[in-house]
Amino acid sequence: MHEVALATSIIEIASAAAARAGASRITCVKLRIGELTCADSETLSFAFQIASAGSLSEGAALAIEMVPVSVRCRTCGSTGAPEDKFLLLCPSCASPDVDVLSGREIVVSSIEAD
Amino acid sequence: MHEVDVNANVLEANQSIALENRELFTQKGLYVFNLMSGPGAGKTTLLERTLTALSPKVRFAVIEGDVQSDFDARRIEKLGVPVVQINTGGACHLDARLVHNHLSRLPIDAVDALIIENVGNLVCPAEFDLGEHDKVMLLSVTEGADKPRKYPVMFHVARLVLLTKTDLLPYVDFDVQAASKAIAGLNLDAPVIPVSARTGDNFDAWLGWLSARIDRVRSLRG
After folding, report:
1. Which residues 6+ apart lie within 8 Å of B35 measured at CB?
2. How far is residue B146's CA from residue B1's CA, in Å, rounded to a whole number?
3. Partner B contacted by A22 (CB < 8 A)
4. Quick count: other Cβ atoms within 10 Å of Cβ A99?
5. Pick from A73, A70, A50: which is nearest to A62 by CA?
6. On chain B, which terminus has fewer CB atoms closer than 10 Å, C or N?
7. Spatial distance between the Cα atoms of A29 and A57, rounded to a whole number of angstroms
8. CB count, 10 Å around CB of B157?
């Protein structure tokens, strides 16, 4: 449900970047979303479409790249993707004592603009 | 057409306000926790018993977040604790700006702990840092021991998990051991404390944890 809040933020970021680049229209917003976040890409695209009306992002496509979860083990030091992305166990030694390296980000990576 | 690099964190705006909030709280020696759970897990009942047990030794203030209504704020008000109600009007979570904007309505210079009761939701509040020191999560025994695996992100970010409504354990199929194991699998650092806010069973364990956190932040007063 918080996809509307995320979409509003994405539109603000994209529009500011377009304005800085002197562009008058955004054709595509490229987004990276970690698999551990609760953002649903379908809902987000729908919210983006509605919330972008009247902004520089109106009519722009939203290209979403999902970022897989990776962890570093505090027990054995190895890094990698846990077998179950929500049960964060070290892929080498199965220790639950891990730091999350990726999978929590929601980032506007770039925009395509005219 | 050309591509413009942006590389901006979408939650950055919220994050920077949250950092400001946290700095302010710590500088004042004011301990703040964000109370999160699904709707009906017993957040307000837990607060009522907590406030009654520790006031006036600890001076509290409360922010109540709900989609609509001021039912919760009225319950807290009855205890003589300063409270503000934030109605999100449909939004599923509180954010750092909302908290920041309502702080002026509370006597934060004259309290030791601020409790932010988030909107009842097991998903969205996990993503929004409010500037709190800790996220405390409730899971009631009536919800079922499978919830940690079904809603893992919330459990990843919790500093403490309270298993609530344990007075109902004889009537429900809830395996405390299995739930504690499932939570440990998601978050090794969060202790799990079973409590009943209705009977007070094991409530001292929670009050002890909370008092230690309040003391810790009070010692940081700038």
Report:
1. B43, B46, B47, B115, B116, B117, B118, B136, B137, B138
2. 50
3. no
4. 11
5. A50
6. C
7. 8
8. 18
- Tell me the C-alpha distance between B32 and A35, whole Å: 29
> Does B3 map to a domain?
no
Contact B100, B128 (CB under 8 A): no
Please give the tally of structural domains in chain B: 1
Q: Does A64 touch chain B (CB under 8 A)?
A: no
CA distance A107 to chain B (A): 4
Q: Residue B58's domain spans which residues? A: 12-218
Interface contact flag, A89 B4, Cβ < 8 Å: no
Alpha carbon distance A19, B158 (integer Å): 39
ipTM score for this prediction: 0.85
Neighbours of B178 (CB within 10 A): 12
The CATH number of the domain holding residue B181 is 3.40.50.300
Instruction: Kindly state whether A106 is in contact with chain B, defined as any CB-CB distance less than 8 angstroms.
Output: yes
Q: What is the largest CA-CA distance in chain B?
A: 66
- State whether B6 and A23 contact (CB < 8 Å): no
- Tokens of residue B187, six digits: 């978050």
What string of pLDDT tens digits covers the 114 residues of chain A?
A: 588 889 999 999 999 999 999 999 999 999 999 998 888 889 999 999 999 999 999 999 999 999 999 999 999 999 999 998 878 889 999 988 889 999 999 999 999 999
Residue B1 resides in a domain: no
What amino acid occupies position B142? T
| A12–B contact, CB cutoff 8 A | yes
The model's pTM: 0.87
Query: What residue in A sits closest to B122 (Cα-Cα)?
Result: A38
